[in-house]
Write a structure and sequence with these properties.
The structure is a single chain. With 152 residues, the protein is mainly alpha-helical. It contains 6 helices and 2 strands, in the order αββααααα. Strands 1-2 form a two-stranded antiparallel sheet.
């Protein structure tokens, strides 16, 4: 294995030497080896992996992702579907319940996202937000009326 690494290192050095002789700029990044503290050049595969990880974290930490995650997490925390999932998990196979819950929530949320995109292409977001607000007020009045009448 060491001979292969040495051969690859020699080929990289030869490429760098040829590029330098041709007058091309040569970029070399160095990383500190944990074992002996020596610096060695970072390989192209490592650069690709680091770029991929950077892209993944920029996606996961994007404002849209974080806002959506927090919104869904807080909306789902303690609702009836979570309580039903807790009961199912206690009574049935945990892995089956987890897989069914993930698949069901994924399908439901996927349909909501696609439906929202289709709706937004036909109706302005401002109108949808206004209609949603009116509906919440109507439901609040209805539930308040029912609660008042049940207590009497």
């Amino acid at each position: 294995m060491h001979s292969v690494e040495a051969e690859l290192s020699e080929k990289d050095a030869a490429k760098s030497q040829m590029a330098m002789e041709a007058g091309e700029p040569v970029e070399t990044e160095f990383a500190v080896n944990v074992d002996d503290g020596a610096e060695k050049p970072v390989k192209e595969d490592d650069k690709t992996m680091l770029a991929s990880l950077r892209n993944l974290f920029s996606l996961l930490l994007s404002p849209v992702f974080v806002e959506t995650f927090v919104l869904v997490f807080l909306a789902e925390w303690g609702d009836r579907s979570q309580l039903a999932t807790i009961a199912l998990g206690a009574a049935k196979n945990v892995y089956g319940v987890a897989a069914g819950t993930i698949l069901g929530h994924t399908c439901c949320t996927g349909l909501a996202v696609v439906g929202g995109q289709l709706l937004a292409s036909r109706i302005s977001v401002k109108k949808v937000t206004f209609a949603g607000g009116i509906l919440f007020i109507v439901f609040a009045i209805l539930y308040g009326y029912e609660a008042y009448n049940m207590s009497n």
